[in-house]
Amino acid sequence: MFKAAEDHPFVVKGCKRSTSRRRRGDGGGSCVSFDLPGVCSDDILVLPNENEVKFYGENKEVYEHDDSCRIFMGAITRSSVCAPGVPLLSHDIAWDAEFGVLTVRVSPPGSNNTNRE
User: Fold this and answer.
1) Coiled-coil regions in this chain (predicted)?
2) How many domains does one find in the chain?
């Protein structure tokens, strides 16, 4: 009687939010991804400090009827990625941007695995 709904061909499977966070099992580090649509990796600025890792991205594409650009700003706080009392700058912090997705990896001090996911 009822026909099962089929998947829509234009719906992409995966995370539906603009942020994704996962713990890495190899050393207790964290990996946080942010969706910055249309932002080139050269237009992303990442600024780590003692309490947070701030990021800034700007979509510089200009279209015929829309001369505005989109600006993305955010931060990862120390409390979300490391133990209390441990400065964030003592951790190994690495980031990469590809296809409009910024991935920030924070590993505990002394681990040499910032390039793995």
Assistant:
1) none
2) 1
| Alpha carbons 98 and 7: distance in angstroms, whole number | 27
Give a yes or no: residue 97 inside a domain.
Answer: yes
For residues 104 and 80, what is the distance between their CA atoms, to the nearest angstrom? 13
CATH number at residue 41: 2.60.40.790
User: Between 8 and 70, whose confidence is greater?
Assistant: 70
Using alpha carbons, select from 110, 104, 99 the residue that is nearest to residue 12: 99
In the chain, the largest separation of any two C-alpha atoms, in whole Å, equals 62
Residue tagged 């998947």 (tokens): 7
Asked whether 102 and 34 are in contact (CB, 8 A), the reply is: yes
3-state secondary structure of 24: coil
In terms of average pLDDT, the best of 27-36, 55-64, 88-97 is 88-97
What does residue 72 show for φ and ψ, rounded to 5 degrees?
Answer: -115, 130
